[in-house]
Request: fold
Amino acid sequence: MYTTELSKSASGANVQGIEDPAKLAAFEARVAADEFIEPKDWMPEAYRRTLTRQISQHAHSEIVGMLPEGNWISRAPSLRRKAILLAKVQDEAGHGLYLYSAAETLGTSRREMIEALHSGKAKYSTIFNYPTLTWADIGAIGWLVDGAAIMNQVPLQRTSYGPYARAMVRVCKEESFHQRQGYEICMAMMAGTPDQQRMMQDAFNRWWWPSLMMFGPTDDNSPNTAQSMRWRIKRDTNDELRQKFVDITAPQADAIGLTVPDPDLKWNEAKGGYDFGAVDWEEFYAVVKGEGPVAKERMKARRDAWEKGAWVREAAAAYAEKQARKAQAA
Amino acid sequence: MSKDWPLWEVFVRAKGGMSHRHVGSVHAPDAEIALRHARDTYTRRMEGISLWVVPSAQIVASDPADDAQNFDPAQDKIYRHPTFYDIPDGITHI
Reply:
């Protein structure tokens, strides 16, 4: 899945002032020529910082993203759905691990990143601070949340930082299953009883707007976009991607009888895309600040898992140490 | 414990006849768990039939600062490639 760039502290300002101008110029030229930057290559500090933040937030989102769906594994309506959901949630863990590994190559340890998440210092995608109330939510998440994630992640396969780009290639390959299984759940619900259809429409209503928020603030409110695009850390603007998502998703909703919960949604022939209503940005920023409906629950679940698993990590480390000692003595 | 488990680089052989290829890394306390983590992280979809894990600290890499010295000299030695040589059309099997 995906997280938007949430913190505005590490801006690219002052880059020119503090870096060696010759190295910086050579770096900018390489990036502009669509070359990949690898871990041992020279890079400006602001590039390193911005990437570390972006990739670790992305990783955190994958990890926290397991929680809303994990909530339904034991209550999946059939063995088939249960096996699929288990596989999907396991994939999210894998995506988190690819991304942590990529971020670590920039010089921040896994431990530091996890501590930043657990202390509340690091952000993750706002989308996971919404609850999964019914089984229909699992369909909506796969279809909409993973759909939005794909839209964000496909261009990142060409991002300038090699390890991030390679992680994205793997993630994108796997993500398409996530979206299709979600849409299939939605189709099944919409082919069901009137109650099931109502349940599906309700889930769709609740996930539509948070999904649009996944693309981040509007372009005129996204001060780092220009710098990030220049550095090929980002390849499309938030509004471009949001528009693309609406254009693709609205007909998919229509095809299975769902109504997009936006009275202003209207096809605009001239622009070749949909016009749609304004996103409630106050809600978005409130959720970013940790006021999402289940933000506290999510962080508590994360910290509990980490703390309750500590003895396993310690035992494994102690065992490895003992074996190494034995091998040395022998 | 306040330290990460050591880092291991993971290599996967996609199928018989191909060489192992670097796919990423995992943290693990020892080789056995590194292999397990590598399996779970990198081969969930039949990506491979064999895994290697190597402690990352054991890998010695060339320095990007030496790239020019290491790799550029190959650029002006085009006579190392078969297409450098003009052979008349009538000559076959060469």
In short: Strands of chain B lie at 7-13, 20-27, 50-55. The mean pLDDT of chain B is 93. The longest strand of chain B covers residues 20-27. Helices of chain B lie at 31-42, 67-71.
